[in-house]
Amino acid sequence: MSKRSGQLRLGAFLYPTGHHIAAWRHPDAQADAGLNFRHYVELAKAAEAAKFDLVFLADGVGTRGDSVDFLSRTAHSYVAQFEPITLLSALAAVTERIGLVGTASTSFNEPYHIARKFASLDHISGGRAGWNLVTSSNEHEAKNFNRDKHFDHAERYERAAEFAEVTAGLWDSWDDDAFVRDKAQGRFFDPDRRHVLDHKGRFFQVKGPLNVARSPQGHPVVVQAGSSEAGRELAARTAEVIFTAQQTLEDAVNFYADVKGRLEKYGRHPDDLKIMPGVFPIVGRSESEATEKFEELQSLIDPKVGLALVSGLTGGFDLSGYPLDGPIPDLPETNASKSRQLLTIELARRENLTIRQLYLRIAGARGHWQLVGTAEQIVDELEERFVNYGADGFNVMPPVLPNGLKDFAELVLPELRRRGLFRDEYTGRTLRENLGLRRPQNRYVADGK
Amino acid sequence: MSKRSGQLRLGAFLYPTGHHIAAWRHPDAQADAGLNFRHYVELAKAAEAAKFDLVFLADGVGTRGDSVDFLSRTAHSYVAQFEPITLLSALAAVTERIGLVGTASTSFNEPYHIARKFASLDHISGGRAGWNLVTSSNEHEAKNFNRDKHFDHAERYERAAEFAEVTAGLWDSWDDDAFVRDKAQGRFFDPDRRHVLDHKGRFFQVKGPLNVARSPQGHPVVVQAGSSEAGRELAARTAEVIFTAQQTLEDAVNFYADVKGRLEKYGRHPDDLKIMPGVFPIVGRSESEATEKFEELQSLIDPKVGLALVSGLTGGFDLSGYPLDGPIPDLPETNASKSRQLLTIELARRENLTIRQLYLRIAGARGHWQLVGTAEQIVDELEERFVNYGADGFNVMPPVLPNGLKDFAELVLPELRRRGLFRDEYTGRTLRENLGLRRPQNRYVADGK
């Protein structure tokens, strides 16, 4: 395959105080970021000024860290923060062009609510909404929703697939031109352009129609993160953006080819899905400045937090009985995130890391791709992945916020632009247009009509 | 009881094109209001400039009118509009002082989601969130949520009571000062100030804690609308504002005394609950101008829409076989809104109305209290209800928007202010403070601590 040209896409992944596990302890960090609306307004406006495609918010329906050692939790900062749909809706009112992508789980939600809220956000924002469709894999989340255990892996992906199908169907409840609003004739809508889904499946029975008009983007952009076999297949069928984690160029290129290769059987074109791996950049004006920044953050990690993180990423098993300076023990296959478990254990084996070295190695990016260096060094890496078809763009995970985003905009973006790899101005009106995704046709409208 | 002094509270009930059933057909109406964000920004800012306590949004989880005659539905305008939580969150970002109250049903939601979203909105808005807790009584809503039928009246109120209890418990998950964010010690929160609800009830099992810090108001303000026996009891136990519908002073005074009298057994003070009936005002600079405005709107009602409305308000039975110019037939007790059925039938009997006369009589206010006249005449009526303990304030339902709200602000408010009945400026920082409601103490904090 020849090397590609064109421009890459960028997301700004806004984790409250930043993505480094000890970010909140950094002197620059806004420690109350999780519930500081002004902080998010500043970040969203900065990302928009820098022409990022989108801001991205993670989510969980419980207090994170409940599944691991209690003591370490008091050092965790991601336990109480804004709910993404409310936060993105508020940010919609103070931004104009940037996409607004939020996570919502299919495990403990109803498709009617989710379809409705993201369609509503799409209208409020003038076509900038995106939904990161995830499944929930923590028991402490299940316990907030009438269940003792979470759904097992296969069932939760089956539910997710049906959930996505219902949601897409509800988004087509009305033709784009269904609302005629003819005051003289007293005809608010055309009944022939209203469609009743009447879905009856294994997990859901949903009649419809949705009580929101078809939204500016037709459908809000659907994002997914799963990289397991079931996750890849679900993404090939329903996702338009994949937010993923690969450590090496080889893994990234293989993943890219694998997922794009699955699209055809669902009648989709490779361009209908953008692959945007997470990247955790620590950028300095010199290499030593970057390394110092990184070391400063690493020194702030409480060993208990590091251990809890490794436990979480390797499947949720209690590792506190194992020596910190010994290897990761053999672990059974998890029923939580299988792909995350595999990636983490592979990394430890490949680099021959002890538990302590592993947490120091992954704490920053929490399993994502970590780059420490000058703007030029970082852009070399991003470019390499992009031109070799390892990525269509990246979801940028600043180590500390707000400064990490500012550093990326001031140091990395000029270098990307110098090489022609990133836009100077928004060209699209909607998130879909900026990402280069087509607007989906309404399923009820005959081809060619 | 001596006549009361003091000031009344006002809500601005924002129904997309206005509350009159034919509002959208009026030349002044913004026909696409339901999905026009700028329209709502304008309304919220106008209501805030006028010092209303709050804006109020209704909701349903289906396309309204699906339970009645299909043909009439094409003339209905409340079928596809913003979802309230997304809309209020967006409005939070462009307003500073006004309360933001949205409806969400307990019938097809999970308490963890609702507690979280309203707590998040309370943080985003700096303490201005309110939740109008309702139960869902339409089958077309149930069919969007895996059910063939909705819950029956008693079960749905039992579920609502438990839902409210869980939500309140989740809002107390963290003490106000739980987040110490001690960077040097690496201590983000104090584990002794974190509380696990561990609710196990008939309808819900919810472990907690909530993943949002305790919000500025402690709890978002809880609003309710039910006026049936079960609804009154639920309100006495859990509501802080009641949005109700009484046609006469006598009914209003009786309702007020009845509900306030139920508070003591729940350890509550009469001031802990504000009763704010809906009022549908058509105000003119002269009485004849007001009457002309009203007649213009009445002339826009399609008889099929009128009949469908009467069917809906009297319990959802099909009345299309009865002569429009004959009386309302005897109807069985509904399993939908019992109080709404009773109020509507009583009105028809009291005023000896035919079906046509009834729809003309109630179409405007959809069962609420309708006032047509000059500012002075309207304020006479409002004052009479207020000083005689028939209301603590009113939820204003403008007939057509945006002009109906503007008329109220420009004509009625100056007269209310001249009589000392309404504020010139906001005095409180939060919705709770403006309404005169105390901030609830955290249930886990010992008295006097």
From TrEMBL, chains A, B:
Residues 22-392 form the Luciferase-like domain. InterPro entries: Diverse_substr_monoxygenases (IPR051260), Luciferase-like_dom (IPR011251), Luciferase-like_sf (IPR036661), NTA_MOA (IPR016215). Its EC number is 1.14.14.10. It is an enzyme of class 1 (oxidoreductase). It holds the Pfam family Bac_luciferase. One of its GO terms (molecular function) is nitrilotriacetate monooxygenase activity. Keywords: Flavoprotein, FMN, Monooxygenase, Oxidoreductase. It comes from the Bacteria. Belongs to the NtaA/SnaA/DszA monooxygenase family. PANTHER family: ALKANESULFONATE MONOOXYGENASE-RELATED, C2H2 FINGER DOMAIN TRANSCRIPTION FACTOR (EUROFUNG)-RELATED. This is Nitrilotriacetate monooxygenase component A. It comes from Paraburkholderia metrosideri. The lineage of its organism: Bacteria, Pseudomonadati, Pseudomonadota, Betaproteobacteria, Burkholderiales. The gene is ntaA_4.
